[in-house]
């Protein structure tokens, strides 16, 4: 595919402006339209994909609602989904059964799409392609009637692009003034795209400036189709002087990410998100650091431990306090806590099988267990002079990992948890007896036992005691649970509480789904993990070998003494050896756990499905075959 | 039925003793056997019930295991169950479908059986009858071959009974010396029955004395069949002098129980256990005292508030402390807490539909909500001088309600809960602004918010701080959850934690299951309650009108301001109005709730079934029909 062709016909700034103002007019030159239709036809026959974008852009009219329509479509139409063409780097729509046979490349792409803030340009692209099919039909129809179609907006190229300076571009930073950006030497007016951006208003951060730093941060943009889509919005070129200056050398912000173990299954490379092979989990009560699941929202910051400072401020504190790493290690007693961390999206892939959700396609291993060493948050707050009695209700954490706008990763936990004698909230500088690895927050991270991973902020830079929860995207508009009936049209993030404590969970790590078991040894051994949030101890795991009809009680293994009531922060590994059933050559293995509040896992996934694919804790099932003798 | 017939053949003490010593011998007189067989046949043909008990008793041999066999049988054989004959006061075995069409009298009896200590003589009776069926077949078979059967023990009556004094009876209080009891003027050697007693070793409390006080306490014994069963064990009569003395006037210990509202659905009269009509629950955020569910384990004690003392002692206390009601009301600030209490057995009837469990057959209304007024346990312990640092882990409560042996109702809660700033454990003397009613613990009860009803000890007499949990039956061998695979043969009560915090729960109070709805108004309104233990707030209730395929979010109603995190002790009432579905005339309404730890209810009952029928919190379902237009 010739990328230059795909920029589409070019129009003048003035025409564009009037189009944005809603002035519909007839196309001016028939040959131009004919050429445009031919262009579309040619592209369609070659690969049936990215074409006619400019037309669509103009035809869409009130385009702000499209983001939601796109999302709705992806959610509601499992039989019709986009597929990445392996050889052509393009996308086309394809029908299939319930999304179960999704092309793996597409899966990876979806995973990538949802990394970071979770949503990207590309969603808009797919949407456009979908509408394109209908529009192309309309166009072909019009052409058949002699090309007399009336277009709401024009599509005429008008020769060379106008020239702008970077300074002129910076003046276009609002929907009123137009939203302009640069990429390389080109200037783009993306005003009409803002409402289509699947990443939401975050796109406005780039208004008036260069896209490169953002795309370096959210690497999923670096794809041919995204460039093609951008091409349609081109309205000018930079002045020769500004061209020479360049947009500043944009290095890959992920270039300094640490090396990782190749055994990890990568769900997103930039930012890095990966889980270990599930068998590794049940082999170790403490997950080795290299295999501990990694869930980064942004590039791993490079922190000089000598220059590192932890800033503490907020309600109830007489003044802001700044602590060095040395202060933390020497002025406070060191405590160790063994705590399991779990991503809210662990086992999301099972929800995806029901109906597509947004988010990384985690298997069952976005959970791991470690012994953390560090100082107690409570003691640090007391040292900083915190006194009860004010309006404080929350402790906000800010990471040193920041996006290009300088916004750090952020989250908060209830003050009650932070101050509790039994809450065991740590500021950790050690993990399993080693220095905290860079991927896990070097030099300091929050460890909030019993609480969803997202609140265990890594590369901890600031602690703010506040009457309010963190205002971060991740606290306010992510990591919340909803009814299966709620979709992206109807979701009201204010209506649900931010996930803190997680519910009871368990999964089967061995055998793997689809495994072919040898009948040697007369026994089948099933292993797994079980954990519950809020310090609730797992007291029982039931395992079924017949799909849930009958149950056996598994043997629980813990790597430590029985924890005090309400402080069971670590998972339990479990095991069940059972004779192969006499008849049948297939085993439907199911597990479900019970905690000491006698909470139990729900039976099935569909009734707990939610649009973000979090809190996936239904009974875990694997089906394995038994080799014939 | 002629009760005298049912005493069965009588044998001498000596024969009895030798039988107990395991000496098997041939029957001595054929005519006696023939008469015995006729006797059985006659009774069988008349009502197929209580007969051949003596034979069975002797045939059972190593009878100690029978209790468990009986229980197993009742659990495993839903198609074969005993039925109370309405007109004859007898029991016969009857087949049916899954126990769904149980005779209501039998239901009441089962309910009664499980009241108090939960198990009674009658279970043994049923067991015997069941084994009788098999034995009768053997007998008939033997008779057919000329009555040459060899019986392990004899069944010959030997004239008049020996005479014993009460003093002699008191010497038989162990299995070695034999276990004797009196009832009326008769003396019974129940040594062989001890192991059969479904109430367990509690029967030994009566050893050497009169049964009357026990049967007065556990009224379920006062049935014809139990008298008949006892008759078989008669070994003598009391001396004339002792006859004159009597066993002491035994008044009904329940005679002074308070009056109750007739609208209550009684599950057991003595002790009193009853639930309100479920519609009443969802009409009132605070359940009126008269309708608050009643769950008594023993007779309601009569307490003189002037003479009442609360005794406090144990670990960490410098000395025992005694407080009057006046002390409690004047020396401590009064606090109010709105808290929902729920019986561990709420919704047990749904488990009974899967497979018979032991316990009162509660519907969905063994849960209610009230505002409690009283003093904080924490403050009372501090007043008593409690200091941290010792071995104390639990706070034990003892009630003033006692069984005939003087053993009080008892339970304990974790010390952590008792001392927690946020635990809100009250010693309550008010309920919904009124003086605590007698049925709810007058003059003082524990209110342990978020914790199973059984730990909210009523008629509170003693508080003991201890390193140990309460040793009471209800803490150690009851109110615990098990896997569906655990039966009375395999249950190990030590393997499961005592229920404290309860899991997420919800139920539909309106419409009722089986209701016929009018299509007027175009809307169907569904109402219910939702609650979770441990102070976890209910954040959502999903309601389905199509059996769980699709869901709608109900509107939650709370009677108070949003509680602090972790202190949501009160339920939420909820409501959903939805249009009647266009097609179909039946609605499968389902509800499920979510708390702020995002715990959800399990989908179905069978996988959470447990032998005591506690923790029944699967999705609640009602099926209603819509009237044809």
UniProtKB/TrEMBL annotation, chains A, B:
Domain spans labelled Cytochrome b5 heme-binding: 161-239
Ranges where the record places region Disordered: 241-267
Associated pathway: Energy metabolism; sulfur metabolism; Sulfur metabolism
Enzyme nomenclature, EC number: 1.8.3.1
Catalyzed reaction equations: sulfite + O2 + H2O = sulfate + H2O2
Matching PROSITE patterns: CYTOCHROME_B5_1, CYTOCHROME_B5_2
Top-level taxon of the source organism: Eukaryota
Function: Catalyzes the oxidation of sulfite to sulfate, the terminal reaction in the oxidative degradation of sulfur-containing amino acids.
Identification of the protein by name: sulfite oxidase
Organism: Huso huso
């Amino acid at each position: 595919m010739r990328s230059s062709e795909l920029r589409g016909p070019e129009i003048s700034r003035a025409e564009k402006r009037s189009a944005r103002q809603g002035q519909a007019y007839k196309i001016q030159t028939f040959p131009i339209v004919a050429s445009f239709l031919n262009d579309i036809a040619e592209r369609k026959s070659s690969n049936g994909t990215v074409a006619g974008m400019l037309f669509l852009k103009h035809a869409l009219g009130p385009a702000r609602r499209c983001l939601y329509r796109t999302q709705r479509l992806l959610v509601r139409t499992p039989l019709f989904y986009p597929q990445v063409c392996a050889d052509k780097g393009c996308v086309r729509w394809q029908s299939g059964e319930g999304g179960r046979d999704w092309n793996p490349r597409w899966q990876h792409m979806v995973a990538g799409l949802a990394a970071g803030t979770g949503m990207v340009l590309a969603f808009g692209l797919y949407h456009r392609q979908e509408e394109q099919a209908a529009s192309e039909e309309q166009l072909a129809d019009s052409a058949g009637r002699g090309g007399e179609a009336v277009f709401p907006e024009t599509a005429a190229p008008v020769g060379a692009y106008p020239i702008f300076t970077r300074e002129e571009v910076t003046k276009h930073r609002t929907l009123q003034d137009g939203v302009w950006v640069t990429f390389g030497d080109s200037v783009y007016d993306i005003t009409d795209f803002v409402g289509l951006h699947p990443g939401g208003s975050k796109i406005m951060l780039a208004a008036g400036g260069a896209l490169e730093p953002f795309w370096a941060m959210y690497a999923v943009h670096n794809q041919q189709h995204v460039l093609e889509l951008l091409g349609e919005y081109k309205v000018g070129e930079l002045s020769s002087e500004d061209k020479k200056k360049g947009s500043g050398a944009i290095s890959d912000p992920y270039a300094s990410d640490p090396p990782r173990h190749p055994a990890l299954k990568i769900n997103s490379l930039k930012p890095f998100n990966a889980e270990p092979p599930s068998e590794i989990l049940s082999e170790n009560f403490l997950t080795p650091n290299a295999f501990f699941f990694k869930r980064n929202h942004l590039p791993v910051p490079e922190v000089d431990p000598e220059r590192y400072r932890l800033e503490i401020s907020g309600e109830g504190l007489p003044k802001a306090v700044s602590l060095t790493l040395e202060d933390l290690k020497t002025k406070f007693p060191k405590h160790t806590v063994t705590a399991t961390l779990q991503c809210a999206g662990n086992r999301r892939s099972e929800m995806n099988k029901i109906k597509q959700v947004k988010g990384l396609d985690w298997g069952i291993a976005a959970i791991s267990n470690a012994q953390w060493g560090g100082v107690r948050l409570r003691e640090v707050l007391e040292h900083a002079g915190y006194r009860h009695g004010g309006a404080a209700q929350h402790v906000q954490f800010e990471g040193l990992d920041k996006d290009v706008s300088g916004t750090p990763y952020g989250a908060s936990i209830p003050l009650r948890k932070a101050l509790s004698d039994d809450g065991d909230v740590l500021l950790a500088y050690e993990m399993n007896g080693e220095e905290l690895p860079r991927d896990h927050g070097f030099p300091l991270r929050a460890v909030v036992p019993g609480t969803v991973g997202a609140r265990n902020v890594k590369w901890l830079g600031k602690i703010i005691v506040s009457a309010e929860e963190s205002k971060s995207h991740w606290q306010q508009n992510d990591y919340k649970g909803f009814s299966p009936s709620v979709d992206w049209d109807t979701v009201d993030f204010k209506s649900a509480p931010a996930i803190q404590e997680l519910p009871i969970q368990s999964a089967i790590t061995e055998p793997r789904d689809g495994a072919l078991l040898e009948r040697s040894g007369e026994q089948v051994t099933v292993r797994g993990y079980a954990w519950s949030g809020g310090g609730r101890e797992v007291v029982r795991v039931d395992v079924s070998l017949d799909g849930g009809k009958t149950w056996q009680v598994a043997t629980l293994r813990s790597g430590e003494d029985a924890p005090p009531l309400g402080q069971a922060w670590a998972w339990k590994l479990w095991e069940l050896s059972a004779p192969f059933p006499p008849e049948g050559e297939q085993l439907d293995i199911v597990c479900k756990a019970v905690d000491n509040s006698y909470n139990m896992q729900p039976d099935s996934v569909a009734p707990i499905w939610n649009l973000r694919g979090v809190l996936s804790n239904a009974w875990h099932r694997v089906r394995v075959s038994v080799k014939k003798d």
